[in-house]
Input
Amino acid sequence: MIEKINLSLPVKSLTGSAVNGTGDTGEQNFSAVFKNALQEVNKLQFEADAASQKLVTGKVDDIAPVVIAAEKASIALQLTVQVRNKIIDAYNEVMRMQV
Output
């Protein structure tokens, strides 16, 4: 049986105080969630760079963790670019709407 993936994003609805971040529920607005995601991608990029430098300088003998760190950073960056593309597409679609 395949289980669904739970992303557990703090933004639960598009109405009410959850969107503007003023609610008492502790939910964040979209810009805060996106900023946190970008910071996480940046952190993964730095970790991959540090692992590569350790491998080059001979401080790490096993290449597997270096490759895993590089792939994590690469996949996170690709996901971020795709999310950005979808946001831009949605913005352009809204701008094309006739009022």
